[in-house]
Amino acid sequence: MKMKLTTLALGALMAAGPVMADLVFPSLSYRTGPYAAGGIPFADGYADYFTMLNERDGGIGGEPIRLVECETGYNTEKGVECYESTKGEGALVYQPLSTGITYQLIPKATADGIPIHTMGYGRTSAANGNVFSNVFNYPANYWNGASGVVNYLLESNGGDINGKKIALVYHNSAYGKEPIRTLEELSKKHGFELKALPVDHPGQEQKSQWLQIRRDRPDYVVIWGWGVMNQVAVQEAANIRFPMENFIGVWWSGAEHDVLSAGDAANGYKAITFHNVGSDFPVFDDIKKHVVDAGKAAGAGDQVGTVLYNRGLYAAMLAAEAVKTAQDMHGVTDITPQQMRDGMEALEITEEKMAALGMPNFGPSFKVSCENHGGPGLVGVNQWDAASKTWSLISDFKPTDGEVIGALVAEDSGAYAAENKIEPNC
Amino acid sequence: MFYREAGDFKISYTQDNQTFPIRFDRYRYYAVMIFAFAVVPFLINDYWANAIMLPFLIYAIAAIGLNILTGYCGQVSLGTGGFMAVGAYACYKLMTAFPDVSMFIHVLLAGGITALVGVLFGLPSLRIKGFYLAVATLAAQFFLVWLFNRVPWFYNYSASGQINAPERDVFGIIITGPNAPAWATYLFCLIFLTLCALIARNLTRGTVGRKWMAIRDMDIAAEIIGVNPLKAKMTAFAVSSFFVGISGALFFAVYLGAVEVGEVFGIQKSFLVLFMVIIGGLGSIFGSFAGAAFLVLLPVVLKVVGADMLGWPTDIVAHLQLVIVGALIIVFLIMEPHGLAQLWRVAKEKLRLWPFPH
């Protein structure tokens, strides 16, 4: 019980922390644990873009940016600690890069009036802004991803996948379970046979799942993995000589580190994406000049241009654009989280805007509205070339099955609204 | 000098047998209780409640539960995480099925359900001991997590398999959900911890506890002197699981609010609670508190000192934390196998003799 005195002393220490008037972006990152391989490049990209804005433009609208990094280890308890310790500093938006932590933060952040942006992860039905006032998941979500995969298969099979067998290898968690419902609906609609194979955290044990795949011989395998699970899956697929071009990953299973370890055997592996890949964009010149060459790169600085680095960069860019929108809307530069939320809801990304930012055709152009926090849900497909060690876009960003997804979003968000007695927001 | 028994006369058995026979100890205990109940609720904010006090209080309940089973009755258990999951899911099902019933009752019932499950998984302990029992409880851990992942009824058929705590109250004060005030959640957990600690303390020094300890020290001898091993072991499993179930219910409903069974109640949780019990001290109620406080505070302190004050990279701090916790466990096992509780006991002995040690 003496411990309480120590805690009290510690509290006095922390309460004395300074509160500065600048734009605070917490980065709930994970650079440790079984998911660090994915967490590091994303966190680096997120940090580097803001560092670049600070160095080149002096922040956003003249307001300097302060990035507060907090290590979560992909662990929900640490995520809560990180949220509570950073929210008092005036955090503008949370991007936890973890579906588990997102579920935790949705009610908390909504009660605190802070927006959450879960780009391509989190709770899919948060696309319904009528129910989830403070949660955004533009430009695409899991269900768009699931539908994007099926659409791509339809396209490559001349529009008919009736009777085909598709196996889904998924991370046995909220993240991995998200697409199942959509895939089930789509399997009814298009007549393919779906077989879901769960892989438990952290995902190194997949022998039995791949044995089953070898026995069942599905036409396609779709993977919903993250962290170390991806590398193991690609290697296992290579081991059973599963044709790589029939193996498709979600966007979280399609980065360099996922396929490099399997070497040439990974050639032809595909993954869907909602943003462009490579470092052939003008913005990377600025990052090189102001961040990397100046020795200010986050982490080891060796991730620039990788798929997940680009995703971190893209997330930071969308956040910065939302800040600009909010600053214009409210006429102040030092915005509050509430104003940030308004900015995100009024965000409009156009081709011209992206070109002006040095990121032409980096992602889709879209407009967020009060009802639709999910964006257009355009999904493209990447393919890995093991010889040149690069990902390249083989199918352009195309629309997904809005009819099926819209119904599911309405159903799931409706259930959430009823359970928590939420009034329509718009 | 100021910490001594001289002049502290006991004139009845009740006085002689009280939990804190030394006056100074007793007053310190009252002071801590008053501080915890009457002062902290006025000072506490969201950060303190959610990042430090709630995990400490809840882990302390779990540690008391495991300490009864492992420290007092000598039955090694690696199923704590699984039993916490039972508490959490029982609480969730009750909360959603009976929204108008007070949270207090839900948590108690969740504890009761966990006690039943605990007894069920404790049955093998009558035939197997030591490492083999540890493996049997490990099976409980994996089975329970698998069950809650596998059967959609447990998570009310939600798309993601997550369970979310809806808003519930006690006497009109919101306890769960995002709008619950920090002081209310803190007090709610504190009340449960206080009750659990009092019950545990009084059980362990009465007949039941003595039977547990007899079984722990030598089960054959205990049987010969008339201790029924079936009753003793089953009560230990029941009481232990009851506490662990309460902690699981609070962990889900009050602290986290949303839970994914594999991640939150996995095998790491079983080990964490076991480390708390070992570092705190096997067979000691105070040890459970000390162990829980130690392992909850250490990462936070390291993070504040390393990342916030010294500005080190967050990954270095996270790795350093693993190194430090690991090293501390080894140091404790070698230098002080009886844990923090024994250090505290030694310190008290020294204080009693101070300033004139023999």
Automatic annotation (TrEMBL), chain A:
PANTHER family: BLR6548 PROTEIN. It comes from the Bacteria. Residues 28-350 form the Leucine-binding protein domain. InterPro entries: Leu-bd, Peripla_BP_I. Residues 1-21 form the signal peptide. Coiled coil: none annotated. Pfam families: Peripla_BP_6. Belongs to the leucine-binding protein family. This is Leucine-binding protein domain-containing protein. The keyword Signal applies. Keywords: Signal. The keyword Signal applies.
UniProtKB/TrEMBL annotation, chain B:
GO terms for cellular component: plasma membrane. Its main location: membrane. InterPro entries: ABC_transp_permease, LivM-like. GO terms for molecular function: branched-chain amino acid transmembrane transporter activity. Keywords: Cell membrane, Membrane, Transmembrane, Transmembrane helix. It is found in: Cell membrane. The chain crosses the membrane at residues 27-44, 50-69, 76-95, 101-123, 130-148, 183-200, 236-259, 271-296, 316-335. Pfam families: BPD_transp_2. It is a multi-pass membrane protein. PANTHER family: ABC TRANSPORTER PERMEASE PROTEIN, HIGH-AFFINITY BRANCHED-CHAIN AMINO ACID TRANSPORT SYSTEM PERMEASE. This is High-affinity branched-chain amino acid transport system permease protein LivH. It comes from Falsiruegeria mediterranea M17.
